[in-house]
Recover the amino acids of this structure.
């Protein structure tokens, strides 16, 4: 196992230092598109999946996270290239291993006209931390043990944890802040914008498009961005374009300004010489259901499933030749730690070895080649997120290999909302065996809730993992800072991979292309970063 820390970010997130904001650290990520800024223009971009419910602290889908950056702001902004942390809703801040405090800007307003106060920010954090509210961000963006208190006189919010909380500042920086109305009635934000963002949603047409309009008087964005900044669009339209080839056609034809393109369509879009922003993203993470009674609760079954497939080939098919093997679950930039938890910890590709593993564990093949143990057939239900051609082909490769091994594998693909409903909702924790979904995060501590603790709906451990070595390693890592913390998190995650509890196996480089548009900073469709050019 090889690992090292990401020095700048590790220092910012884990050391017992006091950090105070003094600048924004913005970058011109998307370029100028070759023209002058457009006044009151329209920015259209493509999404592969429908967001569904729009409340960003309750929904779990990546599509919701994507559009929420238009309508909701964050406490601080972290530059993905330099890791410099700058002001946003907070004008200054301090951090230690067990606390973080933020001084909230004066004059920030919500879409309903109410003022954003330090109390509202504290209420956000306490709402997410309360398990009764069912926020998907509990245990990831907000530590489960966190409490927040506000001092209205100084506009200060102080967040504390009873024990050291890894990467506390960075985790809180990824929490979209909602306004009082969304905290009082979370469902009210499912089809409306109840935040402080530059844009508010004005039209919702499910599975077609979502329209956002710029708010007048917005003047608290990163890099001193305001609603009057040249090139800031007046209207933003997020269009549902699930087919990548269709999205590429619309981009090249000028029907949309920006979209993420992967797979074979990248070549023809690259030829158009558009502005591009690259983002590494998880493309393949394999989860197994450990709940008693499911075949994948047997470590031998999990090991054989990995032995039976050539993950190098599957990673290339999954990413249409545009990706690489994953070395960690942590792939989203900026990462708190860079390490390799996979090398030397996974069983190697060996079809005969897979069959031998099952034979030794009592999963015997019948006359038809199909395996069973004590009367239980090796019948597996696989769910996967996405239905693009590359992902379908990769799933078919794995299905064929597993069927050849003696299993009977049924596969079901769908959008993220459908897969989340089966695997993560807690409605029936026995309803699946293998899942290919992606958990996106930039800090290793964010995965603790998925690898340990209660199962849904009480917790996030949807795979019902019980790995004592991981839990001990995570406990140790949580009490450390800096490079030592990164080393310890690498060791803990390696225990998950060694036990084949879950496997990261593919990352893709997600290219977002811009036509007559760009980003003033960052790498995502963040409201204040969007620009339109002639």
């Amino acid at each position: 196992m090889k690992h090292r820390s990401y020095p700048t970010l590790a220092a910012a997130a884990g050391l017992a230092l006091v950090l105070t904001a003094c600048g924004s650290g913005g970058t011109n990520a998307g370029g100028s598109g070759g023209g002058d800024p457009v006044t009151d223009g329209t920015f259209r971009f493509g999404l592969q999946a429908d967001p569904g419910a729009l409340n960003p602290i309750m929904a779990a889908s990546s599509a919701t996270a994507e559009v929420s950056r238009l309508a909701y702001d964050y406490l601080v902004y972290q530059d993905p290239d330099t890791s410099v942390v700058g002001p946003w809703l907070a004008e200054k801040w301090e951090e230690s291993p067990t606390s973080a405090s933020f001084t909230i800007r004066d004059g920030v307003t919500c879409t309903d006209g109410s003022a954003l106060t330090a109390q509202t920010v504290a209420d956000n954090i306490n709402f997410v931390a309360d398990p009764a509210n069912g926020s998907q961000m509990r245990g990831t963006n907000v530590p489960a043990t966190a409490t927040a208190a506000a001092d209205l006189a100084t506009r200060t919010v102080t967040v504390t944890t009873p024990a050291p909380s890894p990467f506390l500042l960075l985790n809180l920086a990824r929490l979209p802040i909602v306004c009082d109305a969304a905290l009082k009635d979370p469902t009210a934000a499912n089809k409306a914008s109840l935040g402080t963002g530059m844009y508010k949603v004005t039209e919702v047409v499910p599975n077609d498009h979502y329209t956002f309009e710029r708010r007048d008087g917005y003047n608290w964005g990163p890099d001193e961005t305001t609603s009057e900044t040249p090139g800031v669009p007046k209207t933003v339209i997020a269009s549902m374009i699930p087919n990548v080839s269709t999205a590429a056609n619309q981009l090249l034809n000028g029907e949309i300004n920006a979209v993420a393109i992967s797979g074979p369509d990248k070549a023809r879009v690259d030829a158009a010489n558009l502005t591009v922003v690259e983002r590494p993203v998880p493309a393949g993470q394999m989860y197994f259901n450990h709940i008693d009674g499911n075949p994948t609760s047997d470590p031998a079954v999990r090991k054989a499933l990995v032995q039976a497939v050539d993950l190098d080939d599957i990673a290339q098919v999954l990413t249409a030749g545009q990706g690489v093997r994953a070395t960690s679950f942590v792939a989203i930039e900026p990462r708190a730690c860079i390490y390799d938890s996979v090398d030397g910890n996974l069983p190697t590709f060996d079809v005969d070895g897979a069959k031998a593993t099952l034979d030794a564990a009592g999963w015997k093949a019948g006359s038809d080649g199909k395996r069973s143990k004590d009367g239980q057939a090796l019948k597996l239900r696989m769910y996967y997120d996405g239905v693009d051609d590359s992902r379908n082909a990769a799933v078919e490769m794995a299905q064929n290999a597993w069927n050849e091994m003696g299993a009977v594998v049924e596969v079901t693909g769908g959008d993220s909302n459908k897969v989340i409903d089966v695997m993560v909702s807690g409605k029936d924790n026995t309803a699946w065996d293998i899942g290919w979904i992606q958990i996106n995060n930039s800090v290793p501590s964010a995965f603790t809730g998925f690898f340990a603790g209660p199962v849904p709906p009480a917790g996030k451990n949807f795979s019902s993992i019980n790995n004592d070595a991981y839990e001990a390693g995570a406990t140790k890592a949580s009490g450390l800072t800096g490079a030592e913390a990164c080393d310890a998190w690498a060791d803990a995650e390696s225990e998950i991979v060694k036990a084949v509890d879950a496997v990261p196996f593919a990352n893709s480089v997600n290219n977002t292309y811009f036509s007559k548009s760009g980003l003033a900073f960052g790498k995502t469709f963040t409201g204040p970063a969007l620009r339109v050019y002639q």
